[in-house]
């Protein structure tokens, strides 16, 4: 860990007065002395609220902390609303690094000869600059065909910077967990660990390429939801761990509301398709883009009455297994129907809360949180906030953190926020309910049974010719096993007989020894000697008894 970097972070935190977040009464004397010893570092932003100072401090510490702040802003289950809203203001555009340096990094990755042969018009001015990478435009030349592309390149030495900063974050997380009043509930160490895993995944652009290819295939031509989502083409043959080449798209930023209105885009349909994007990825494909903030989402408004969502930056994706997916869908439907008993029971059945949880108490807690929400008109209810409240309530009943559900919650908050921004009258509940009810029916109804049978037909077609042989082998093995069991059983019976015989010989032998002793005391020498001799014979017979 760099001492200079640690000092810079401490200096930033103190100059923005973040030490004031820890009540003085909770600090030990040595911590107070340490704070007093660096008296020259004072709060220079006393006129600003603490949540704004927290955001400004993170912003001033550079890309790694900005990315952390963006991730933290989605954890509304952990942060007060004011903090979450403030951190949500962090933007993706950060100071870019040299375009010439970016070009050299690309050449080092793909090779000078290949770069000169297949790429032209490389623009050293970045199209966009984010926390860990920046994007440049170029023209890809293949088979005398030209295509506009963008080249994403990781910042130089970003991995080293990230690991150094994560070590510092872990240090501060330990301090927060120990001294902040709400430290244990906030689970700062777990949050930093989650951030570390997420950002290390994003450092491998080959992984992002594979995610984008999978997502594009899920929404490719011929599928039911072709017009819902478009994913740019990835040129994986030129991509590397730190360089990604993909088709350039010319969509409109989903946050450019005035421009979309100016083109007469069907905003209601666009918002509804955003809901379809989320639920289709989660429940049809079990593979969802988990970073759909405004900077990663565009709109193809070529046909204003039939708009399409465009998604880029697939570095973070989430998956759900079959059981989680089914329980989650049933939870949503139960919520729509205000069946809190079923919601509570589903949480227990799924293992999300301990098996000994009182369903009655859990149901009452969920009802207490959710009933006031449902008194509002459906169009005013935040679906994402209901999910946050549910997870918060479940956590009081020792619900373990489910990473896949955290990503899901984050994505739903993004999608709902975008949908309401595009079309404020969006009733996400009414849009989602038919989708989920149909999905549950398809997965659990008669149609699902026939679908599973249909899926199994190729397997049974392959195994059917082998069935007579398998039955014969089973019967033969059963007969052999029965014979072996009979032999073993017979052997056990013989052993029992032998043990019984040994026991009788031993008892008689011992009895004769006692009789010989009595005869000896009565001066019956010959009878005593005979009894001893017979006792010895019986003892020898017992020792020699065997199967």
Helicity level, as a percent range? 55-70%
Number-wise, the strands total: 11
Strand content: 5-15%
Multimeric state: single chain
Q: Which segments are poorly predicted (pLDDT under 50) over 5 or more consecutive residues?
A: none
Report the C-alpha radius of gyration, rounded.
36 Å
Q: Kindly report the average pLDDT value.
A: 77
Give the overall shape, derived from the CA principal axes: elongated
Number of helices: 22
Distance between the termini: 75 Å
Q: Characterize the main sheet.
A: 5 strands, antiparallel
The assigned structural class equals: alpha+beta
Q: Domain count, please report it.
A: 4
Domain ABC1 atypical kinase-like: 90-346
Keywords: ATP-binding, Cell inner membrane, Cell membrane, Kinase, Membrane, Nucleotide-binding, Transferase, Transmembrane, Transmembrane helix, Ubiquinone, Ubiquinone biosynthesis
Main location: membrane
Family: Belongs to the ABC1 family. UbiB subfamily. Belongs to the protein kinase superfamily. ADCK protein kinase family.
